[in-house]
Specification:
The chain contains 3 helices and 11 strands; from the N terminus they run H-E-E-E-E-H-E-H-E-E-E-E-E-E. Strand 10 and strand 11 form a beta hairpin. The chain is globular and about 45 Å long. Helix content is 14%, strand content 42%. The longest helix has 8 residues. The strands form 3 sheets. The protein has a 7-stranded antiparallel beta sheet with strand order 2-1-5-8-9-4-3. The protein has a single domain, classed as Pnp Oxidase, Chain A. It is mainly beta. Bound molecules: flavin mononucleotide (FMN). The site of flavin mononucleotide has 18 residues, from strand 2 and helix 2.
């Protein structure tokens, strides 16, 4: 198989726009969470979603240990949260307005475009990431709130 340069991989995948979600959990030592754009709907019956945390993620082991998580779909005006939840060492929950998601108790961030409260159904290794399959336990959206869009390494609207 020919080697695929990382820069080519990023440039081509950057042509595929995504939303940005913050996956949170109510960990034993407090809340944890990270920004993720490798997120997808998977199945309607039963309701399943998936996301792909890197093996280097510090929050993923906490989510895995807790077994439940909330997917927060960021709103168009929440670009700063996408950046905050991707910043190593930042105190990501200080000053953040959130409530407890109904099933998991995971942080449900105020003002998001939508959210899905989930439990882990299965975990599969996928290269340098894991594939996390989640069962949706509860969800809601505010259709009046537009989502944040990520592509070509940047955010829309700019
Ligand atoms: C827009 C955006 C999308 C991201 N998508 C992912 C992703 O799908 N999976 C992942 O593991 N990290 C992703 N990251 C990087 C993590 O958010 C970042 O490495 C973070 O610091 C990880 O935090 P943690 O070590 O607390 O888990 C993304 C970052 C940004 C800004």
């Amino acid at each position: 198989m020919p080697a695929i340069p990382a820069a080519d991989y990023r440039r081509v995948l950057g042509q595929f726009p995504t939303g940005v979600v913050v996956v949170t959990t109510a960990g034993p030592s407090g809340p944890a969470g990270l920004s993720v754009n490798a997120f997808s709907a998977v199945s309607l019956h039963p309701p399943l979603i998936g996301f792909f945390p890197a093996h280097t993620s510090g929050s993923w082991p906490v989510i895995r240990e807790t077994g439940t998580f909330c997917v927060n779909i960021l709103a168009a005006d929440q670009e700063q949260l996408a950046r905050l939840f991707a910043t190593p060492g930042a105190d990501r929950f200080a000053g953040l307005e959130y409530s407890a998601a109904p099933k998991s108790g995971a942080p449900l961030i105020k003002g998001v475009a939508g959210w899905l409260d989930c439990r882990i159904e299965a975990v599969t290794q996928a290269g340098d990431h894991d594939f996390v399959l989640g069962r949706v336990l509860a969800l809601d959206t505010d259709p009046a709130i537009a989502p944040l869009i990520y592509h070509r390494g940047g955010y829309l609207p700019a």
